[in-house]
Amino acid sequence: MERFSLRGKAALVTGGNRGLGRAMALALAEAGADVAIVSQSGEGAHEVVDKIEALGRSALAITGDVAVPTEARRIVRAVVDQFARLDVLVNAAGVNRRIPSLEVKEEEWDWIIGVNLKGTFFMCQAAAEAMIKQRGGSIINVASLLSEIGIPTLAPYAASKAGVVGLTRVLAAEWGPYGVRVNAIGPGYFRTRMTERLFSDPAWVERLLQQVPLGRAGFPEDLAGVVVFLASDASSYLTGQVIYVDGGYLCARPA
């Protein structure tokens, strides 16, 4: 359907070189968008660029640190210089480390909050400046189940992702009058490099799947439909919302 098409639109995906970000970048390209991806190391970026170009779309790989505000502005300028506009931002860059709360060090707290929350905010800010000038755009932040529930040893990560939800709602209210929509996706348990250690434990996987009504973990490609929906005109009256893509995990958790 035409309302789901992203042809003529330019998208930017942070953390687009791997995992969930990679899958969402490719989904946006499949829907017709030209796509820029951002990574801190550049690892895997050229492979993603090749896949986007194979779909007939233009692509750009940028190396940068989203937790640095000047870098966020530089990244957005590079995208606008390349594509002459910015219609979609997906904030998928994220880090995590499981640490008992009594053992969390300041540098670990700052690292996780810096990438997941500070980085998300300043990427939103930089992108919104461009979107407001063109009177429209869609910002899609990546939240988490940890935005809603508490799991031991994940205090900095949970704080960052709860912050992402609060930030999403504030920015949606503030930038809505300019035609800029801000929503979030809350992934459940997905198999990525970040979670591979968990999924290598068969007993843990068995316990997890007992809590997921759909009976399986998520794959990065499971985010394709929702990110295209939120990026496209099909969601033109939707802002300030969080869509949890979790196989039913949240609705099935015992009270």
Could you characterize the architecture of this molecule?
The protein has 255 residues and is of the alpha/beta class. The chain has a single domain, classed as 3-Layer(aba) Sandwich (Rossmann fold), CATH 3.40.50.720. Helix content is 44%, strand content 15%. The chain is built from 9 helices and 7 strands, in the order βαβαβαβαβαβαααβα. Strand 1 (10-14), helix 1 (19-30) and strand 2 (34-39) form a beta-alpha-beta unit. The chain is globular.
What's this model, at a glance?
By secondary structure, this protein is an alpha/beta fold.
Describe the protein's topology.
Blueprint: E1 10-14, H1 19-30, E2 34-39, H2 45-54, E3 59-63, H3 69-83, E4 88-91, H4 106-133, E5 137-142, H5 155-175, E6 180-187, H6 196-199, H7 202-210, H8 224-231, E7 242-245, H9 249-252
Helix pairs in contact: 1-8, 3-4, 4-5
